[in-house]
Amino acid sequence: MDRDVAYPTRAARARTLAELDALVVECGACPRLVAWREQVAEEKRASYQDETYWARPAPGFGDPDARVVVVGLAPAAHGANRTGRMFTGDRSGDFLFAALHRTGFASQPTSTSRDDGMVLTGLRLTAPVRCAPPENRPTPVERRTCAPWLGRELELVAPDVAVVLGGFGWQALLAALDDLGWRVPRPRPTFGHGTEVRLDGPDGRRLVLLGCFHVSPHNTFTGRLTPEMLDAVLVRARELSAPT
Hints:
The protein is built from 9 helices and 6 strands. It is α/β, with parallel strands linked by helices. The protein has a 6-stranded mixed β-sheet, sandwiched between helices. The chain is globular.
């Protein structure tokens, strides 16, 4: 089997999240994404000229026993591609971590680097694509190639609630759940901010999907997504994931 094609199939062999994270950071399955993440690390943004970029796939981050997962899109070129941590070091992450702190999931309101002491409790951050894509637009093939990492992460975490940021993540998550044997309705549920979808999965498991506009500056700077709107979704996620 071709070396690049073999990478995602290794996800199924990971027995723990630590093993999965170690495998994902070595993935080189998508040539376009590999070239872009490394080009960005060489050229750098002027304000980060003295920093060494991560320039590898970004693993998930957070509580290994999380009852809530937040599913984004992909690492930002000068965010997680620089820092090596999901949603860390860019404006999208600034907006998200402030909300996570307000709602009791994060130990501090800002996330700037992998060693800044940030701790997430009851929540894990992940994404359907693990490398920074040009113009923040992964191709359908890149999404499918990366899907086994997300699928295995969901199996290992086994969350009760998934907060999905944006339509891309929504479709990617539904596809991953379908691959895992979850009963995904046909036609697939449509993404919308505040949408709740309950799914039944293998072994009697259940998962609630909560739709939320993405925390990108395009949405937060225009007021399409406000702090109050994001807080409401996260509070709802906490309610739904609370023990009964």
